[in-house]
Each structure stands twice: as C-alpha cells, then as structure tokens.
Amino acid sequence: MSALDWIVVGGYFFVMLAIGVWSKTRVENVADFFTARGRVPWWLSGISHHMSGYSAIMFVTFAAVAYDYGVTVYFWWALTIGLGIGIGAFLFAPRWNRLRAKHGVNSPLAYLAVRYNLPTQQVLAYSGAALKVVDIAAKWVAIAVLLQGFADIPLVWGIGLTGICTMFYVTFGGLWADVLTDFGQFVIQAVAGFAMLFAVLAHLGGVSSLWTMWGDLPEGHGDPVAGDVTTGLLLAFLLVKTFEYNGGMWNLAQRYMSAPSGSRARKSALLSSALWLVWPFILFVPMIAAPLIVPGLDNAEDSYIRLAQELLPSGFIGLLLAGFFSHTMAMVASDSNVITAVITRDLAPVLVPRVRRMTQRAQLLFARVTTVAFVTASMTLALFSDPDGFIMTVVVSIVAATMGPISIPLMLGLLPWFKRTGPLAAIVSWAGGLAVWSYLYWGVGDASEAATVGFPVLTSLVLYVGIGLLRPEADEGRDALVDSLGSDPTDEERLALEREFLADPDKGGEPETTTASR
C-alpha cells in the first residue's frame, strides 16, 4: 500500500471518531441510545438496514465462493435476503416500529415478557447474545485477514485496531452513530464498488464483457446452483433469512423501530429489499470474474485482495480498505448496540433488580460500559480462534443454522394469527430446533449444509405452530398487545407515551412493561 492509501484509511478513521463525538450530543437517555426515539428518517433507516447486513466476510469468504463456483453466491445469499426483507416489509417492519411508538419498547426482546413470560424472554436473550459474540468474532477475523493481505499487518493488531475504534464511536454515539456510519459506508462502498467494477470491465475489454465473459469462466460459474449449494439450501436460506433480516437479527429490528412510524418503517424495508436485489450483484461481478484476471490461486479467500492489487491505482486500494473497515465496523456497532439494549433492558434487571431503578444518567452509563464489555468479549474470542475455516463455519453452520430456532418465537409472536400461541410453544420450539441443530452439527459427521441450516428452523416452525394449535393459551393482555400492533398510534397516544416518559425520568425510559400490558 502507498502513502496515499494510508492517508485515505487514516481519514476514514478520523471521520468515524468524529461521528461518535458528534452523535454523543444527540444522546440524552437510553431511548436515544438504543432507538433514537423514532427520529431517524425512513430513507436513512432503510440504507442503514441494508448496510448492516454487510461485513468484510463478503470480501473474504463470499469472494472465495464466487471465485470457485461463480454466480451461485448471489442466489443463495443476496437474493434470498432481498426477497425475505420484501416479505417482511408487510409482515414485520411496521409491527416492530409500533412496539416502540405505542409501548415505549427500546429493546427487541423487551415485549417478550408480556407476550409470553419472563423465562421465555430470558432463554431467547441469553442464547441470542451468546450467538452474537461468536458471530462478531468472525467479523473481526475477516477484517484482520484483509488487513494482513493488503498491508501485512498481523491478525492480532488488525483485530485490536478495528475493535477499539468501533468501541469508541458506538459507546459514545449509540444508534445515531451507528446509522450515520452506515450511511458513510454506503457512500464509500458505492465509490469503491464501482471503481472495482469499471477496472475489471476495462481489463476484460469493456462493458460487453458482462455478457461475454461467461464462456471463458470455469464450467458452472453461470449456474445458480453449483458446488455445495443445492436447491434445498436456497429454500432453507430463504426461510431463515426472512426471519433473520426482519428482526431475528436483533439489530435490524432496531432499524425499523428507529423510523418515525410503522408505515415509514415499511418504506425503509422496501428500500432495503430493493438494494439487496441489485447492489450485491454489482459487487459480485468482479469476484466472479476474478479467475480470468488472477487465475490459479491456492487460497481463494485472497482473490479480492489480489484483484485489487492487480487493477486499482494508488489511493483506491486505501478507499477499498476503508470500505472493508466500514462494512465490519458498522455491522459490529449495530450488533453491539442491540446486545447492549438486551443486556441493559432485559437481562441485567432480572439479575440485579436495582438496575431497573437507576436514573436515566446511570442507565446510560451502564449501557456504555456494557457495550465495551461485549466488544471486548468478541475480540477476545477472535484472537484465540483459528482463522482457517472459522468464518464459513460461523456464518453457515452456526449463525444461519441457529438463528431460526431463536427467532421463530420472537418473530411469529408479533403476528395476529399466532396470538393464542403461548410460552409452552415458544420454549419447546426454541429447544427443539436447537436440539436438532446440535445433533446435525455434532452427532452427524456428514450432514449437508442444507440439512444443517434447514431442519432446525423447520423443526421450530412446526413445533411452534403445532403446539399453538393443539394447546392455545388465551390471555387478555397478550391479545391486547398483539392487536395494538395492527395500526400506527394516534397523535394522542404518541403524546401520552411521551408525557409518561418525561414525567418520570428516574424510570430510565422504561414504560414498556406497564404500557404494553394494559
């Protein structure tokens, strides 16, 4: 890397820190810290929702899949996410927003204690938080691998550098810092992505290579299903991603909650869906074409690095690396914020009841300390992991496979068709899905990826629906909660909630339990 590249990377880090400092001025309490109190414009919420699904993993592990197997990586990953978010725009997005707007909910899991019961909320919170630590550790490893490839920086230093910078700006700025970073990421990614696309097309002979290169690529590179990807895996991913990207991945539920209203949350989801259907394909074209430019690589995970070093001029490699940082840091910041919300609002008050009685200032300090602790834990796991194969194992065999059982009770609990489904169905579906995953992951040595990803979520879905039908658990408070999510609050309801919050600041912004249960 040249001096100009390092200047670009240094400028990026300076901007990130400035965002954190500026965002701190907009955070007065935990409601601002976790959901920006619904003041994020719908278009910014939509862009943030879209960008929160990226990390450096795309340019390491997914680049390797594109190098080895071609366009299939778009179909099993980006396409399934885009379609899933489009479905969720009508089923889930408005309802997440109305939890905040009508009931003051600042954590995606806060409503579960009313919707089911406290034990259900706690098992979903603990299992989801543990999963997120592993997931974020994979993100740290991915960005460190890229740093090592571009600049020969040791993995330990790469993990430490990105982790500490991320910890700084999200700890100060909360969700505002997160969504503004996502927007910056969107701009950087657009410039760097188009620069790489144009460089590849110029090298291959112009725009016409978009439709002529397929005959020169290795056999099967143009097939939607190739390598380990099967039609069953595509369908399994579509099911999992529909739940995961509409709130099962808790940080994405926050994006819907931060929009001004339920109808605008739907618009933000539709924007995110459209971006997922179009933009990843533009990013994948250079990765798919890489065998024609840097053939014969022993390690396909280095393909994007070698492509950039081969084609991009001085300065653009720094911009590309800044984009990699931006991907990973934005996603980690997003996850850190929501995990902090879950710990601060749902876990800690159960273990230490006096946390619930903290003033707003004390709860905000507690949230920031929790953010530091979560990022530190994920960095520690990354430092002690073996980077060879760790990323793909986490992304597919652990996160994608276990996200379904954790998210089924959380997501379906929002819908009116399942309002008579109670805590028994929630707990059994969660436990059954994770038991099937454990058996396939550890007990069956040769289980396919389609089975590992698909069977746990299908098991949870069948158990949740089946038990709900066979043993309905009617509850007046539960019915009222679910029914209330069918429409945006009136101006009177919105003002009443705001007055309740402002009237008792020592509650730390926690009207969700009392209001939601009325």
Q: Helical element count?
A: 22
- What's the CATH topology name of the largest domain? Sodium/glucose cotransporter
Separation of the first and last Cα atoms? 60 Å
What's the CATH H-level superfamily name of the largest domain? Sodium/glucose cotransporter
Low-confidence stretches: 505-518
Q: Biggest β-sheet, characterized? A: none
Number of domains: 2
Give the second-level CATH assignment, the architecture of the largest domain. Up-down Bundle
User: Tally of extended strands?
Assistant: 0
Region (Disordered): 499-518
GO molecular function: symporter activity
Organism: Streptomyces bathyalis
Transmembrane segments: 6-22, 42-67, 73-93, 123-147, 153-175, 187-211, 231-253, 274-294, 314-333, 364-384, 390-412, 424-444, 450-470
Structure summarized in a few sentences:
This protein has 518 residues and is mainly alpha-helical. The chain has helices at residues 3-24, 30-35, 42-51, 61-69, 72-91, 93-103, 112-115, 118-151, 155-204, 209-212, 231-248, 250-258, 262-293, 303-311, 316-351, 360-383, 387-412, 423-443, 449-470, 476-484, 491-503, 512-516.
